[in-house]
Amino acid sequence: MDREILLIVDPMCSWCWGFSPTIGAMAEEFAGQAPIFPIVGGLRPLTEDPMTGQAKAEVRHHWADVEKASGQSFDYSFFDRDGFIYDTEPACRALVTVRTLKPEAALGFLAAQHRAFYAENRDITDAAVLAELAETAGVDRDAFLAAFPTRKLIYLTATDFFRSQSMGVTGFPTVVLRSEGNLSLLTAGFQPFAALKPQLENWIAGGVDAEKEPAKA
After folding, report:
1. Which candidate, 94, 98, 108, 121, has a CA 20 to 30 Å from the CA of 40?
2. Burial of 144 (0-12, 13-18, 19+ CB in 10 A)
3. CA 83 → CA 23, 64, 87, 187, distances in Å?
4. What digits encode the pLDDT tens for the residues 24-78?
């Protein structure tokens, strides 16, 4: 049976970083039966204005909530940055670039992006940083840097954003199960793997798909 786990995320979404261990566990447990396909949703694409003090306070609050719920660590020295522009499009486009060049490296690259930004305070809006992470994930650095700024990858990234919206996704992470063309929602938001595993096992076994069917892609 044709099955696929659609993972709608943003590399600069803190709840997606909290969800990172669940993504890893799903990949380890079920990827052989239903591969995970990451789709970038675009949390704050093409933002142009630097973060204000109020924006920093709001984001810091979100990080604290994620840290408490998930146990994932954060480097709060991020908030000492001046003039940071929280544009998530480059990080999203980098993931689409890796997915295009070497699909099997995409999930590892996503994990590296999350770790670099949230736990190491690295700037993953920077092409040089993204290229280094891509190389660490097994993608040729020069190939990445050649593809990353192209109109094709900009278009493919925007296509991901549109696909996410057309599926009715309004927040990240969201996991949608695709089986023979049918889509069903596994989770809209953070969940530990233990909470999702029984539903995934039931779906793999051919049982009821999940909670509900979202809008068609």
Report:
1. 121
2. buried
3. 32, 22, 12, 35
4. 999 999 978 999 999 999 999 999 999 999 999 999 999 999 999 999 999 999 9
pLDDT of residue 216: 39
The β-bridge partners of 161 are none
- For helices 106-114 and 89-101, what crossing angle results, to 10°? 150
- The answer to whether 215 and 176 have CB atoms below 8 angstroms apart is no
For 3-204, CATH gives 3.40.30.10
Residues in the chain, overall count: 217
Structure tokens at 77: 């020295």
CA atoms of 46 and 102, how far apart (whole Å)? 25
Alpha-carbon Rg for the chain in angstroms: 17
Task: Pull the structure tokens for residue 161.
Answer: 């954003």
